[in-house]
Structure formats: structure tokens, C-alpha cells
Design brief:
The chain is mainly alpha-helical. The chain is built from 10 helices and 9 strands.
Length: 352
């Protein structure tokens, strides 16, 4: 066997490293070019996302995009796309918890829900698209981002956005009401005119703007029996929850139960008696305090004595005005059982 020394083998491979470098250099340059191109693509993708979002938010109410400048070069080329388009309603809004008939319909009794609160009307998306040449390896063609969308629910359905003032009846815009019998509105207007034209109309001020209540409590009390606020189209439900408590009805045992309207005399009598008695008690307590101060040690100054005596005189005069009213109310309170029995008897003859 022929022996070959290691020095000979090393001398045999001398000069291959430059050759290998020359052979691999195109591959290395190609990989480097791909890395640069990928970085460029990623940069334009991020810019496209930002521009798409900017495009939709610059047109969201109350903005309209007219006074919002678009991104300028070199960040976003003039020949690139930046616009908005109608979007599709996100599936997340199609859930049963918000699918109420009062908002989306249908509702009974001829009412029609106008499509103002439909989420599809607020679905919008920003669109951006850019087409640029690769910085390296131009034979690969150009980079086309395609449509980059940013969806947004644009509608907040606020009063200013919908063009409503604070005095606007929003129900007229949200619903189309069925036509009612004209005689009903005429009868309502006639009832109001009849109340306003009665000779003792001024005496009805006690129901909501009594002067004594304002004097002794600092505000008014509204005694009018009212139907509460309830959004309901079923007449029977409204009657059961709102009307029935106001009127006289026959209970399950056949007895007449007076409603709030028939009980109004007792309600007002109890309120005024309580108010007047409390006022007299406060005045008597004040008189006692003043007398204690008047008899205190050391005695008050002459000027303070005159003030105390004047205040005591005024309080006693006010009590003298209130006491006859209390007596009158107590006499009327004693008559209330008979008055209520008469109301029950009258209702018993009418109610089935």
C-alpha cells in the first residue's frame, strides 16, 4: 500500500475555500435579498393596517373625513388605496339577549319598528391597499397587499347623531304608529277643555300647587293619581298593572275595593293633618326655646328681648291660623267612612 502523508493531503485541498465562497455567494445574496424583501413586505403590511384603521375612524361621526388629512408620502403613496366601504354586521351582535321586539320588531297592534336601530346600518370598514415593487430581486414582480379591512360599528344612535333635539319626540322617529279613531283624540281634548272651564278650577290648585304645602314644606306635592311609566302594548297588561289600582273594582270575594281615585280624599286629609300638626309642633317647640332663653340667666339684652317677644307673637299668630284648619280637617276625617261607604254602594250598583 502506498502511504500518503497528511501534509500532502492538506496541500491537495489548498485553495478550495475561495472556490466554495464563490459558489455560495449567490445563495447568500439571494437569502439576504429575500430577507430585505420580507422586511419590506412586513413594513407595508403594518402600514396598511394602520391606514385602514385611520380610514374608517376619520369618517366616524361626527367626523366626515373632509377635514382629516390623509397620510402623506413617503409613509403612504398617493397611488395607494385608502377608503371606506359598507361592512357586514359582526356575528357577535346576533345574540338573543339584545334581540328585543321593541328594537327590531315585530310588535303587535299595528306598530311598525323603523330600521333606525338596525346594527347593519352602522357596519362600516376601512379599506387600504398598496402595490409596490420589491427593493431587491425585481424579477419577482411586485408586492400586492390586497384589501386590508378594519371593521367598525359606526352608529351610536345618540340624539345628536340622529338629528334629534332635546325636545324631539323620539318615538315618532323610532316607530310608525297605527292610525287611531279620530273621535278618541277629540274626546280627550274635550275632556281637558271641560276641566279648564269649570267655575271652581282655581280650587283644584290644592292637587298639585297648594300654597300651604309650599309654605310649610318648601315645595309642592302632586296628588293626582297617575298611570306609571311602562313600555307595554298589551292593553290588558297595562290595565292589570297600572289602571286597576286607580279605579274601583270588585275583588275575588265580591267586595268593592276602592281605587286611588276614590281614596284621594282620605290620602289628602291624612297628608294635610300630618303637615299642619307637625308645623304646630315645630312652632310650639320654638316658642318653648324662646321662653327658656327669655327666662335664662343672665337675662338677654333689651334688644334681644324685643326680638324674642316679636317672634313669639308671630308664631302664636301662625298657630292661631293653623288650628282652625286642623279642626276642619278632623271633622271631615270623621265623615270619611260614610263618604267611602257611599262610594262603595255606588260602585256596587255599576260593577258586574
Amino acid at each position: 500500500m502506498r502511504y500518503v502523508s497528511s501534509d500532502f493531503r492538506n496541500r491537495k485541498r489548498a485553495g478550495l475555500a475561495p472556490l466554495e465562497f464563490v459558489l455560495w455567494l449567490p445563495v447568500l445574496l439571494f437569502v439576504m435579498a429575500l430577507m430585505v424583501n420580507y422586511g419590506t413586505v412586513a413594513t407595508w403590511r403594518v402600514r396598511s393596517e394602520v391606514v385602514s384603521r385611520h380610514a374608517v375612524w376619520r369618517t366616524r361621526w361626527p367626523r366626515n373625513g373632509g377635514n382629516e388629512s390623509a397620510p402623506t408620502r413617503p409613509y403612504w403613496p398617493h397611488d395607494a388605496v385608502m377608503t371606506t366601504a359598507s361592512g357586514t354586521t359582526p356575528v357577535i351582535l346576533d345574540i338573543s339577549e339584545i334581540d328585543h321586539a321593541v328594537v327590531r320588531g315585530p310588535i303587535p297592534n299595528g306598530f311598525v319598528v323603523r330600521p333606525l336601530l338596525e346594527p347593519t346600518q352602522g357596519a362600516i370598514k376601512g379599506v387600504s391597499e398598496v402595490n409596490r415593487e420589491y427593493p431587491l430581486l425585481p424579477r419577482m414582480g411586485s408586492f400586492e397587499s390586497g384589501d386590508v379591512d378594519t371593521p367598525l360599528i359606526d352608529r351610536k344612535w345618540s340624539a345628536p347623531e340622529m338629528g334629534f333635539s332635546n325636545w324631539h319626540r323620539r318615538t315618532l322617529a323610532l316607530y310608525k304608529f297605527p292610525k287611531t279613531d279620530p273621535s278618541l283624540s277629540q274626546a280627550f281634548g274635550q275632556a281637558i277643555n271641560s276641566v279648564l272651564s269649570i267655575p271652581h278650577y282655581d280650587d283644584l290648585a290644592v292637587l298639585d300647587r297648594d300654597a300651604d304645602i309650599r309654605k310649610y314644606t318648601g315645595g309642592y306635592v302632586d296628588f293626582h293619581p297617575r298611570v306609571g311609566r311602562r313600555c307595554e302594548l298589551d292593553p290588558q297588561v297595562v290595565y292589570d298593572h297600572q289602571v286597576e289600582r286607580l279605579i274601583d273594582i270588585r275583588d275575588d270575594e265580591g267586595d268593592i275595593r276602592l281605587g286611588q281615585i276614590s281614596r284621594l280624599p282620605r290620602t289628602m286629609t291624612n297628608y294635610f293633618l300630618g303637615m299642619y300638626r307637625a308645623a304646630v309642633q315645630r312652632m310650639e317647640d320654638r316658642i318653648e326655646q324662646l321662653q327658656d332663653e327669655l327666662n335664662g340667666t343672665p337675662p338677654p339684652t333689651p334688644q334681644r328681648i324685643a326680638e324674642i317677644l316679636a317672634e313669639i307673637e308671630a308664631l302664636e299668630a301662625e298657630i292661631a291660623i293653623i288650628l282652625p284648619k286642623i279642626d276642619q280637617l278632623e271633622q271631615y276625617e270623621a265623615r270619611l267612612p260614610q263618604i267611602e261607604d257611599d262610594l262603595r254602594a255606588a260602585a256596587n250598583m255599576i260593577l258586574p
